[in-house]
Amino acid sequence: MARERFRKHINKLEDEMMDLGCTVAAAVGHAISALKNRDVDAAKKIVNDDMIINRKRWETEENCINLIALQQPVASDLREIVAIMNIITDLERIGDYAEGVAKIVILLGKEPLVKPLDNIPQMAEKGLDMLNRSIKAFIERDSDMAKKICDEDDEVDKLYDKTYHELLSRMIAKPDTITNATYLIWASHNFERIADRVTNICERTIFLVTGSMQKINVSKY
Predict the structure, then answer these.
(1) In CATH, what number is assigned to the domain containing residue 39?
(2) Residue 171 belongs to some domain of the structure
(3) What is the domain count for the chain?
(4) Interatomic CA distance for residues 78 and 67, integer angstroms
(5) Are 202 and 147 in contact (CB under 8 A)?
(6) Residue 38 φ/ψ region, left for φ over 0, alpha for ψ in the -120 to 50 degree band, beta for the rest
(7) Whole domain around residue 149: which residue ranges?
(8) pLDDT beyond 60 at 219
(9) In which region does residue 28 sit, left (phi positive, over 0), alpha (psi from -120 to 50) or beta (all else)?
(10) Angle, CA 75 vertex, CA 70 and CA 78 arms, to 5°
(11) pLDDT in tens, 11-23
(12) Burial zone of 42 (CB within 10 Å; 0-12 exposed, 13-18 middle, 19+ buried)
């Protein structure tokens, strides 16, 4: 009976983590759309709603700490709670990146872009897809899927580097575009960092399944 009650608490933490993941994924999706459509009103809503993400993270973290204090779990149970605590931290940071992109949309306003967005939405959508699958991999305890997602981070890195160098070249050729180009570099960097945080989530899945922490993708391309 005590074991069943404890398992219910763990399942509740997983549900809270998935709820946070869905909220964060929605924020990222809205940020992509706001940037593509130059939608300042949508961007302002993303900024305002970031507090919801923060609150969900804090509540779940507190529940994790309380469960550790009251139940004193060991072995795989403790690994799962620790993994969830780390994952919700990464999810909250991904929400911050979405908020950061929204703030850039607000700064850009309706000012013409120095160049088409090109690779930035592709990078963002790839990171969002990785995020959704990383949560699925955790719930299903699929370490093979988690490793595959980590490897996909190189694709995002390549798109970021291409975007960065294109914008840097534009800034050098036309110094009057520096501010506008810098905003786009910031936006692309935020999307690139989302993929990095997703690899952290995947590494926690592997930690939960295998019992050992591994740095999966240490090479650049």
Answers:
(1) 1.20.58.220
(2) yes
(3) 1
(4) 10
(5) yes
(6) left
(7) 2-210
(8) no
(9) alpha
(10) 45
(11) 999 999 999 999 9
(12) middle
Q: What tokens does 31 get?
A: 């940020």
Tokens of residue 145, six digits? 């899927």
CB 53 within 8 A of CB 92: yes
Opening angle at CA 96, ends 92 and 97, nearest 5: 120
- What's the rounded Cα separation, in Å, for the pair 182 and 172? 12
Extract the tokens encoding 219. 């090479």
Residue 131 has pLDDT above 80, yes or no: yes
Q: Residue 62: inside a domain, yes or no?
A: yes
pLDDT at position 216 over 70: no
Percent of the chain with pLDDT over 90: 79
Q: What is the pLDDT of residues 132-186, one digit of tens each?
A: 999 999 999 999 999 999 999 999 999 999 999 999 999 999 999 999 999 999 9
State if pTM tops 0.90.
yes
d(CA 108, CA 102): 10
Strands (E), the chain: none
Q: Per the domain annotation, does 74 fall within a domain?
A: yes
Q: Which residues of 46-83 are buried (b: 16+ CB within 10 A; e: fewer)?
A: bbebbeebeebbeebbebbeebeeebebeeebebbbbb
Report if residue 221 sits inside a domain. no
